[in-house]
Amino acid sequence: MRKLFFLILIGIMLITAPLNPVMVHASSEIQFSDVKKTDWFYPTVSKLVEKGYIGGYPDGTFKPQNNIRVSEFTKILISAIGYQVDVSKGGYWAEGYINKAKELGIIKDGEFNDYERYITRGEMARMIVRAGTDSSIKEQGISLDVPENYKEYSSLITDYSTLDPNSQDTALKIFTSGIISGFPDGTIGFNKNATRAEACAILMRFLEKDQRRIPQLPADFSNTLYEEKQIPNAASVFEKRKNGLTTFSAEELKILLDEIYPGDNLTQKWIDTYPAEKLYEYFGQKYSDTFYDYIRTSEKIIDNSTVECDITVKLSDGGTKKHKVRLKIDDNQFWSVISDDIVQ
After folding, report:
1. Could you report the per-residue pLDDT of 197-252, keeping only the tens digit for each?
2. Antiparallel, parallel or unpaired: β 306-315 and 320-329
């Protein structure tokens, strides 16, 4: 009889256990079956899991490419900026986090009619911008650090004109602060849903300023007296592409094809979606404080969704590391590093 009682008790516990993914945590060495150390998002996921801000699912997965819900991101953001919230027993699990977000002005009444739907990148940016300008949060050393001339950067966001005025201001602040850097085609994608991996990377950039990717305005040649100074070269075209710009003259396109992207079967479409930023982020996280820059020496198209690159990583101490990296793009134009071999 006693044994039967314990079996019934265990069964009740399993049935009533919460399935919210942020409640299931891994050890300091994260062991999710779908997160590998070679994944670009491994460092950010690992840090947030270690701090207890986010977790995995009961089946041992993290589901990095799954979209993240409004309630989940609210919980993670409120926890990350230092607020402890009591979870109401028997009620809606995220109610305390949502109320705290409203109290801080991070969420306004009526903005969300369903907290269990997926959050967009624009909504996530709006919440972070509000959090970053709150005086009590600034006291913790967390801020946006938006430059005074932030409105001059609008030309670097290719879908800027499609945004409403409020979203335009949010986009410029989150972009110039280096927290959301946008996609390789220059769009910021505010209407797209955010994945769990993207949310982790964006939140870490908000919390740790050394993780941010600060954009640079292109050089202004409008007052130059010498037209020949504007003749494109490999260095200037590479810098233009690295900054996310995708509009090139015929001369610049020839340089891209002949000098910068010498791989097999390269096309304009491939150039427009090339994961330069993803590689920079990946190696920056892999080598941490010792990372300086990287050079792509050759590229080869493996199939319609996979590219192989020979990369020379430049370290801040003057040393170099040579890698052969394969990247894969999914249907949402999202790049992942699928293999990374050190060849020297």
Report:
1. 999 999 999 999 888 888 888 755 444 443 333 455 656 666 666 555 555 555 66
2. antiparallel
CA gap 201, 238 in Å, rounded: 25
Output b/e per residue, 67-96; b: 16+ Cβ within 10 A: bbbbbbbbbbbbbbbebebeeeeeeebbeb
pTM summary value: 0.60
Pair 116, 89: CB distance under 8 Å: no
pLDDT recorded at residue 226: 35
| Six-digit token string for 136 | 């009590």
The CA distance from 70 to 290, in Å, is 36
Query: Is-contact 213 178, C-beta < 8 A?
Result: yes
Amino acid at 40: W
Query: What is the C-alpha separation between 89 and 336, in angstroms, rounded?
Result: 39
Structure tokens at 73: 């991101």
- Tokens matching residue 285: 């996280």
CA distances 194 to 68, 119, 290, Å, are: 6, 6, 30
Q: Which residues contact 166 (CB under 8 A, 6 or more apart)?
A: none
Total number of residues shown for the chain: 344
CA–chain centroid gap for 240, Å, is 21
For 290-306, the pLDDT digits (tens) are 777 777 766 677 776 78
